[in-house]
Amino acid sequence: MSRQKCIALIAHDEKKDDMAAFARQNEKVLAQAKIVATGTTGGRVLEACPGLDVTRLKSGPLGGDQQIGALIATGEVDLLIFFVDPLTPMPHDVDVKALMRLAIVYDIPMALNRATAEHLLDFAAV
Ligand SMILES: O=C(CO)COP(=O)(O)O
Fold first, then answer.
1. ipTM of the predicted structure?
2. Nearest to 33 by CA among 23, 43, 47, 21
3. Per its UniProt record, what PROSITE patterns does this chain match (predicted)?
Protein backbone atom coordinates (compact mmCIF):
# COMPACT_ATOMS: atom_id res chain seq x y z
CA MET A 1 0.00 0.00 0.00
CA SER A 2 1.36 3.44 -0.87
CA ARG A 3 1.94 5.88 1.95
CA GLN A 4 -0.59 8.59 2.74
CA LYS A 5 -0.03 11.73 0.65
CA CYS A 6 1.27 14.85 2.38
CA ILE A 7 -0.08 18.24 1.33
CA ALA A 8 1.59 21.48 2.49
CA LEU A 9 -0.78 24.44 2.96
CA ILE A 10 0.40 28.04 3.29
CA ALA A 11 -1.41 31.34 2.84
CA HIS A 12 -0.26 34.90 3.26
CA ASP A 13 -2.45 37.04 5.53
CA GLU A 14 -4.57 38.57 2.76
CA LYS A 15 -5.25 35.09 1.41
CA LYS A 16 -6.12 33.32 4.65
CA ASP A 17 -9.90 33.71 4.26
CA ASP A 18 -9.49 32.18 0.83
CA MET A 19 -7.50 29.28 2.26
CA ALA A 20 -10.13 28.63 4.96
CA ALA A 21 -12.85 28.60 2.29
CA PHE A 22 -10.73 26.33 0.07
CA ALA A 23 -10.20 23.90 2.96
CA ARG A 24 -13.92 23.84 3.76
CA GLN A 25 -14.82 23.27 0.14
CA ASN A 26 -12.29 20.47 -0.29
CA GLU A 27 -12.48 18.98 3.19
CA LYS A 28 -13.29 15.45 1.99
CA VAL A 29 -10.22 15.27 -0.25
CA LEU A 30 -7.94 16.93 2.30
CA ALA A 31 -9.16 14.49 4.97
CA GLN A 32 -7.49 11.66 3.06
CA ALA A 33 -4.10 13.35 3.34
CA LYS A 34 -1.68 14.36 6.01
CA ILE A 35 -1.49 18.16 6.09
CA VAL A 36 1.49 20.27 7.10
CA ALA A 37 1.03 24.01 7.35
CA THR A 38 2.74 27.15 8.54
CA GLY A 39 1.53 28.19 11.99
CA THR A 40 -1.21 30.72 11.40
CA THR A 41 -2.44 29.11 8.22
CA GLY A 42 -2.70 25.76 10.00
CA GLY A 43 -4.70 27.39 12.77
CA ARG A 44 -7.15 28.86 10.27
CA VAL A 45 -7.49 25.55 8.44
CA LEU A 46 -8.19 23.71 11.70
CA GLU A 47 -10.76 26.32 12.70
CA ALA A 48 -12.51 25.76 9.36
CA CYS A 49 -12.15 21.95 9.40
CA PRO A 50 -11.42 20.68 12.92
CA GLY A 51 -11.32 17.05 11.80
CA LEU A 52 -8.30 17.37 9.49
CA ASP A 53 -4.89 15.92 10.36
CA VAL A 54 -2.90 19.16 10.41
CA THR A 55 0.65 19.52 11.72
CA ARG A 56 1.33 23.18 12.42
CA LEU A 57 4.91 24.34 11.96
CA LYS A 58 6.36 27.77 12.77
CA SER A 59 4.75 30.87 11.38
CA GLY A 60 6.15 31.82 7.96
CA PRO A 61 8.17 34.87 9.05
CA LEU A 62 9.68 32.81 11.91
CA GLY A 63 10.91 29.94 9.75
CA GLY A 64 7.77 28.01 8.75
CA ASP A 65 8.42 28.35 5.02
CA GLN A 66 11.93 27.00 5.57
CA GLN A 67 10.58 24.07 7.59
CA ILE A 68 8.29 23.16 4.70
CA GLY A 69 11.24 23.56 2.32
CA ALA A 70 13.19 21.09 4.46
CA LEU A 71 10.29 18.60 4.30
CA ILE A 72 10.30 18.94 0.52
CA ALA A 73 14.05 18.29 0.46
CA THR A 74 13.59 15.08 2.49
CA GLY A 75 10.84 13.85 0.18
CA GLU A 76 7.95 14.21 2.61
CA VAL A 77 5.73 16.64 0.69
CA ASP A 78 3.72 15.53 -2.34
CA LEU A 79 1.89 18.76 -3.12
CA LEU A 80 2.44 22.41 -2.15
CA ILE A 81 -0.53 24.78 -2.05
CA PHE A 82 0.63 28.29 -1.29
CA PHE A 83 -1.82 31.18 -1.64
CA VAL A 84 0.58 34.03 -2.26
CA ASP A 85 -0.27 37.70 -1.75
CA PRO A 86 1.42 39.45 -4.68
CA LEU A 87 0.53 42.96 -3.49
CA THR A 88 2.17 43.18 -0.07
CA PRO A 89 5.91 43.37 0.63
CA MET A 90 7.05 40.60 3.02
CA PRO A 91 10.00 40.78 5.40
CA HIS A 92 10.61 37.05 4.76
CA ASP A 93 10.42 37.27 0.99
CA VAL A 94 13.75 35.43 0.66
CA ASP A 95 12.30 32.47 2.58
CA VAL A 96 9.28 32.38 0.27
CA LYS A 97 11.56 32.42 -2.75
CA ALA A 98 13.74 29.66 -1.27
CA LEU A 99 10.67 27.48 -0.65
CA MET A 100 9.46 27.90 -4.22
CA ARG A 101 12.95 27.13 -5.49
CA LEU A 102 13.03 23.83 -3.58
CA ALA A 103 9.58 22.89 -4.89
CA ILE A 104 10.99 23.41 -8.38
CA VAL A 105 14.27 21.57 -7.64
CA TYR A 106 12.39 18.53 -6.32
CA ASP A 107 9.65 18.81 -8.95
CA ILE A 108 6.80 19.02 -6.45
CA PRO A 109 3.42 20.11 -7.89
CA MET A 110 2.97 23.67 -6.60
CA ALA A 111 -0.17 25.83 -6.73
CA LEU A 112 0.34 29.51 -6.01
CA ASN A 113 -3.31 30.53 -6.34
CA ARG A 114 -6.73 29.02 -5.73
CA ALA A 115 -7.62 28.29 -9.34
CA THR A 116 -4.51 26.13 -9.77
CA ALA A 117 -5.00 24.53 -6.36
CA GLU A 118 -8.47 23.30 -7.37
CA HIS A 119 -7.01 21.68 -10.48
CA LEU A 120 -4.10 20.08 -8.63
CA LEU A 121 -6.35 18.63 -5.93
CA ASP A 122 -8.58 17.09 -8.60
CA PHE A 123 -5.54 15.79 -10.41
CA ALA A 124 -3.77 14.44 -7.31
CA ALA A 125 -7.07 12.92 -6.02
CA VAL A 126 -5.19 11.78 -2.95
O1 LIG B 1 4.10 33.86 6.01
C2 LIG B 1 3.65 32.84 5.55
C3 LIG B 1 4.17 32.31 4.29
O4 LIG B 1 5.25 33.01 3.79
C5 LIG B 1 2.57 32.11 6.21
O6 LIG B 1 2.81 31.98 7.59
P7 LIG B 1 1.58 31.89 8.57
O8 LIG B 1 0.73 30.79 8.11
O9 LIG B 1 2.15 31.59 9.94
O10 LIG B 1 0.90 33.24 8.53
1. 0.98
2. 23
3. METHYLGLYOXAL_SYNTH, MGS
CA distance 79 to 44: 19
Catalytic residues: 65
Determine which residue's CA is closest to atom 6 belonging to ligand 1: 60
Encode 69-84: b = buried (16+ Cβ within 10 Å), e = exposed: bebbeeeebbbbbbbb
Pick the residue whose CA is nearest to atom 5 on ligand 1: 60
Q: How far is the CA of 1 from the centre of ligand 1 (A)?
A: 33
CA dihedral (54, 57, 58, 63) positive or negative: negative
For the chain, domains (ranges, CATH) are: 6-124 (3.40.50.1380)
CB 53 within 8 A of CB 45: no
- Number of Cβ within 10 Å of residue 56's Cβ equals 17
Model confidence pTM above 0.90: yes
Please indicate whether residue 26, judged by its CB atom, sits closer than 6 Å to ligand 1: no
